[in-house]
Specification:
Layout lengths: L4 H5 L13 E2 L1 H9 L4 E5 L3 H6 L6 E2 L5 H4 L10 E5 L4 H12 L5 E4 L2 H8 L8
Parallel strand pairs: 1-5, 2-3, 2-4, 4-5
């Protein structure tokens, strides 16, 4: 299977067991972080993007490695997982795929780290 092919195959599917919206706003993520909510921030960008800027305390698995590294997330299966990327497209694919794998609380951060830098943390570098 080619890198990324898996994510496009499941693009139209979503696990209907979850009552959480597939996307969550940056402001909602920040509010949950401030209230010490039990969530996992998951960065699905490439290494060069992470090297440039990343959110503190986030876990990193590049999108093209998810299929091989899914076991690393098993301990978080029942937790809320907020996936982010640059603009929100890749993280939306990953969140959908995670839901199909049984991670019913997976969500994509709408607008990605770029929107985060506009709405929540204006000092973060943008690219």
């Amino acid at each position: 299977m080619q890198s990324g092919q898996l994510f496009f195959e499941v693009q139209g599917r979503m696990n209907n067991e979850s009552t959480l919206p597939l996307e969550i706003s940056c402001g909602q993520v920040k509010a949950q972080m401030d209230s010490q909510s039990d969530l996992v921030l998951l960065d699905c960008r490439e290494k060069n993007e992470v090297d440039f800027v990343a959110l503190a305390d986030s876990f990193w698995i590049p999108m093209n490695q998810f299929q091989d590294r899914l076991a690393e997330l098993d301990q978080h299966r029942e937790r809320q997982i907020v996936v982010y990327c640059h603009l929100g497209a890749r993280s939306l694919h990953v969140a959908r795929w995670l839901r199909d794998q049984g991670f019913s609380r997976a969500q994509s951060m709408a607008g990605g780290i770029d929107q985060w830098s506009l709405d929540v943390e204006p000092g973060l570098p943008r690219y």
